[in-house]
Each structure stands twice: as C-alpha cells, then as structure tokens.
C-alpha cells in the first residue's frame, strides 16, 4: 500500500514540478526574452482588454513580424506610461513605421505610438480558461473544487488502475468494474464542466455588469464605452431576473456573443418599436436573455439611453413565435415599445417579450 501511495505522490509531484518549470521559464519575468520556436505565452494583468481578453487570461505572442501587423490585431509592446512594462492592446491605426493602439475597455486611445523599438509581437492565440479558474479559486471554498478535488481524483485514478491490473478476477468481472469506473469518471467530468461553466457565466455577467455601470457613469463626462472593441449605445436592466447588460448595435450573429444587441427600430428610448436580441444559454445559466421567459406582466425593464436618460418600460405581453414571423418587428408609431427576443430551448422558435413605456 505504501508503494502505491508513493507512486501516486510521485506522479503528482512530477506534474507540479513540470507546471512550476513552465511558469518560471516561460511566464516568469526573468525570462521575458525566452521564446519557444518564436512564440511565448503571457498572462494579462489588467482589465483594459475585457471582456474578450479577461484579467488573468493567457495570450500567446508571435515574436516579430512588425511589417505584417494590421488594424484590429492585438499586439504586445513596452508601454512608457507603465515604466516600459508589457502591454497588450489592439491596433486602431497604422501610421507607416508606428501604430496607434487602444485597450478595448479603455475610453481613449493610448498616448504612445508603438514603434519597432517598443514592439514585441502580435497575438496568435488566447484563452480565458485561466481567468475562470482563478476566479473560481478565489471564491469561498474554491480551493476545494480547483485544487483538492483534482489532486484526490489523480490519486484515486492511480489507485484504481493499480488495483485493476493486479486484481485476480475473471475478464467479465473486470469489464464490469471498468464500466463502473468509466461511469464514475464521466459523471465527475460532467459535474466539473457544470461547475466550470457556472463560474464562466458568473464571471461574464460580473464583467458585463461592470461595463454597463461604466457606461452609465461615463455619459455625463462624454466618454464613450466599449465592449470587445464595440461601442456601447445603452444599457438594459431587468431587476426581476437580475439582469444588467450593455447594449451594442447588431452587426451579425457574432454580436450576440458579446452582449445584448439592438436589431432594429428607433434610437433607444424613442417612440416606436426598439428590438433587442439576446442569446439563451443552452445549460440554463443566467446569461443574456436566458430567463426572459420568467418575466411576468408588469415587470419593469429599464433602458439607459446614449444621452443618459433612464426610460422605464413595463412588460405587456409574452408569446412564442416561429423565427420567420416578422410581425413582431412591427411598430406602433404612437407608443414607446420594447421587444425582447431570444430562442426557445429547442432553438426552433423565438420567445417574444413586449414592453411599453408611458414616459
């Protein structure tokens, strides 16, 4: 038994050692000039590129290729404003041998031009999984789900493999045991994914709510707000379902992956039918318009317009329509109407919530 436990601990210690080496050699500050085949990962330390590039997410940078950089690329450079530390911002203008950059979540462009001397490389890959993991780790008892349970799972898996190989049982019984182990691993994986997805949705909601708050507080100063490099034109709040998001203009279906999108209609808060689209989460998490089917007649929807006015609407009706029914876009020119649209769980029809304002 001692030999089995020592083997399990040896595997765990080896994994931790490799992770530590990767962190120190590849991500550590002392190795900023070390690249692997011209690539190097970095950890984003601030929220200037949220919500597409979240704080604590990992970005892989391709070294060099200054002349290939185009508008829209995210690049790494040494920023004078933070003591020549690394910064990761998006290129918004190419000016010969220099670039103008801006953080997606920053109201104004960077004051520094990125030249060949300050340029490091451009982003080729990024993931927010590390951001979700760290967020889960900092939650109450998060260390149990993110550290202790995975360690126990590794130890149990090593023990199970050891006993299975040495167990003097017939083939049929071994197959049964193997099936039970596989079922247990599958259930554990599903539970782990559910916990991770719940953490991801909570993280996105928090960040988008922060963006909506930022929009509301920046209006009086005349400062624009962006989310994923898209201008925020308003904010929506529905207290009954704990929803608060920035609103952007709908350009294509990818807009719906960013936030609530204005599809058609007059300017927010004006007379006519303002149509807003929002995705429905497939697993039931409270993301975007997932819970608009829970709204009841009389529930309040508050729209903050680009001019800073808060327009209060009240839910008037709720219905389900096929996706080709365009009558829901019709407008009553004498009223301030608001139409919220999302998919049904089977994706075959659309939830339609109609609200009106007396303001």
Structure overview:
The protein is α+β, with helices and mostly antiparallel strands. Helices cover 30% and strands 30% of the residues. It contains four helices and 16 strands. The protein has helices at 2-27, 129-138, 142-166, 171-218, and strands spanning 39-43, 58-63, 74-79, 85-95, 98-102, 113-114, 119-127, 226-227, 230-238, 243-249, 260-264, 272-277, 300-304, 310-321, 336-343, 350-357. It has an eight-stranded mixed beta barrel with strand order 9-10-11-12-15-16-14-13. A seven-stranded antiparallel beta sheet has the order 1-2-7-3-4-5-6, covered by helices on one side. Helix 1 (2-27) crosses helix 3 (142-166), helix 2 (129-138) packs across helix 3 and helix 2 crosses helix 4. The longest helix is centred in the middle third of the chain and has 48 residues, at 171-218.
Per-chain topology:
Layout: H1 2-27, E1 39-43, E2 58-63, E3 74-79, E4 85-95, E5 98-102, E6 113-114, E7 119-127, H2 129-138, H3 142-166, H4 171-218, E8 226-227, E9 230-238, E10 243-249, E11 260-264, E12 272-277, E13 300-304, E14 310-321, E15 336-343, E16 350-357
Helix pairs in contact: 1-3, 2-3, 2-4
């Amino acid at each position: 038994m001692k030999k089995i436990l020592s083997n399990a601990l040896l595997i765990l210690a080896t994994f931790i050692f490799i992770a530590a080496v990767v962190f120190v050699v590849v991500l550590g500050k002392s190795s900023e000039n070390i690249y692997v085949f011209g690539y190097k990962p970095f950890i984003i330390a601030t929220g200037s590129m949220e919500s597409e590039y979240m704080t604590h997410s990992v970005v892989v940078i391709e070294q060099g290729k200054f002349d290939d950089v185009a508008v829209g690329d995210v690049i790494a450079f040494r920023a004078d404003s933070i003591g020549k530390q690394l910064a990761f911002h998006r290129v918004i203008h190419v000016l010969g041998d220099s670039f103008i950059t801006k953080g997606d979540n920053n109201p104004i462009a960077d004051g520094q031009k990125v030249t060949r001397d300050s340029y490091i490389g451009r982003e080729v890959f990024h993931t927010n999984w590390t951001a979700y993991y760290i967020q889960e780790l900092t939650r109450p008892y998060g260390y149990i789900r993110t550290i202790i349970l995975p360690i126990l799972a590794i130890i149990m898996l090593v023990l199970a493999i050891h006993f299975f190989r040495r167990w003097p049982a017939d083939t049929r019984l071994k197959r049964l045991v193997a099936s039970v182990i596989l079922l247990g691993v599958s259930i554990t994986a599903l539970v782990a994914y559910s916990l991770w997805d719940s953490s991801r949705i909570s993280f996105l909601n928090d960040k988008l709510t922060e963006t909506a708050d930022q929009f509301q507080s920046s209006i009086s100063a005349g400062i624009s707000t962006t989310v994923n490099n898209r201008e925020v034109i308003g904010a929506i709040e529905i207290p009954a379902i704990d929803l608060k998001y920035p609103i952007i203009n709908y350009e294509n279906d990818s807009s719906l992956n960013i936030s609530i999108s204005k599809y058609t209609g007059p300017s927010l808060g004006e007379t006519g039918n303002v149509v807003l689209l929002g995705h429905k989460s497939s697993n039931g998490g409270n993301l975007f318009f997932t819970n608009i089917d829970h709204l009841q007649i009389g529930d309040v929807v508050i729209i903050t317009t680009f001019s800073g006015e808060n327009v209060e609407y009240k839910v008037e009706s709720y219905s389900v329509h096929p996706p080709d029914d365009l009558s829901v876009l019709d407008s009553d020119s004498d009223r301030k109407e608001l139409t919220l649209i999302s998919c049904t769980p089977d994706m075959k029809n659309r939830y339609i919530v109609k609200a009106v304002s007396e303001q």
